[in-house]
Amino acid sequence: MPETIVKLEDVAVFQNENLVLQNIDLEVKKGEFVYIIGKTGSGKSSFMKTLYADIPLKQGNGQVADFDLRKLEEKNIPYLRRKLGIVFQDFKLLPDRNVNNNLLFVLKATGWTDPSKMNAKIEEVLDKVGMKSKGFKYPHELSGGEQQRIAIARALLNDPELILADEPTGNLDPQTSVEVMKVLQEINQNGRTIIMATHDYALILKYPHKTLKCDGSKVFEVVQKAV
Ligand SMILES: Nc1ncnc2c1ncn2[C@@H]1O[C@H](COP(=O)(O)OP(=O)(O)OP(=O)(O)O)[C@@H](O)[C@H]1O
After folding, report:
1. Does residue 165's CB lie within 6 angstroms of at least one atom of ligand 1?
2. Using CA atoms, how far apart are residues 95 and 196, in angstroms rounded to an integer?
3. Looking at the 3D structure of the chain, how many domains does it have?
4. For all residues of the chain together, what is the average pLDDT?
5. Is residue 226 part of a domain?
6. What is the DSSP letter of 2?
7. Name one Pfam family in it (predicted).
8. Which CATH number goes with the domain that contains 91?
9. Which of 35, 42, 55 to mutate to test the pocket of ligand 1 (most atoms within 8 A of CB)?
10. Using CA atoms, how far apart are residues 37 and 122, in angstroms rounded to an integer?
């Protein structure tokens, strides 16, 4: 039986005091790829934020990568985040340093010290996203698709149990979106679990996976139909 990476039981998601989603039951097993879809404002980002403990879980039970979200103390959030790779729509690379140093910054911040191990890791993750030769480029010297690949490489640095991608193709044109999506597919085929929030129905049809829809404060599975 594959290991359970995410388990939610009767979870409610709040933004401050406002209820955004309720009665969420979900189990995600190791190796799955799950889409979260829904209209603007339906709660996709709030749902993702709950999974990475940016929004505290106040109602229901939630487990992510062996962390109990209900009991998670503020001081332990960094330990949960080390088991996650988070990818955002706007890449969030540090503009004042090159790709290698962006990745080095994360490794050092998460406790790595051995320079040769760090260099080997950086080379490994850049290779996984097809960007091995771009380590000396600054973010502004890269296209949006390339920046997102670097952000995915950064998410892979600590061998995460789960990748959370919130609209990772939201700032990219359709062709570049497909290229970034291929990278995520490859990573998933190598056994990595991925939850991806998206608006992009073309991608969902091209790369079908289990799909959950946020609508009217509920989250439910939808069956994809080819059009
Ligand atoms: N920081 C915040 N404080 C209060 N309410 C918020 C905050 N962020 C979002 N909301 C509200 O929570 C609800 C869900 O927003 P959320 O950003 O999760 O939706 P979304 O589906 O990700 O939308 P989009 O596709 O536009 O990113 C919306 O009604 C929004 O107005």
Report:
1. no
2. 25
3. 1
4. 95
5. no
6. P
7. ABC_tran
8. 3.40.50.300
9. 42
10. 32
227 domain-assigned? no
Range of the domain at 137: 2-220
Q: 27-55: per-residue pLDDT in tens?
A: 999 999 999 999 999 999 999 999 999 99
Measured in Å, residue 54 CA sits from the centre of ligand 1 at 13
Does 225 map to a domain?
no
Residue with tokens 């059009």: 227
Residue that has been written with the tokens 């979200």 in this structure: 69
Give the Cα separation of 16 and 147 in Å (integer). Answer: 32
Q: Is residue 58 part of a domain?
A: yes
Mutate to test the pocket of ligand 1, among 15, 24, 214 (most ligand atoms within 8 A of CB): 15
Ligand 1 centroid vs 43 CA: distance in angstroms?
A: 6
Which element (helix H / strand E) includes 87?
strand 84-88
Can you tell me which residue has the tokens 């998933």? Answer: 188
Phi/psi for 198 (5° steps) reads -155, 155
**Whose C-alpha lies nearest to ligand 1, atom 25?**
40
Task: Say what the pTM is.
Answer: 0.95
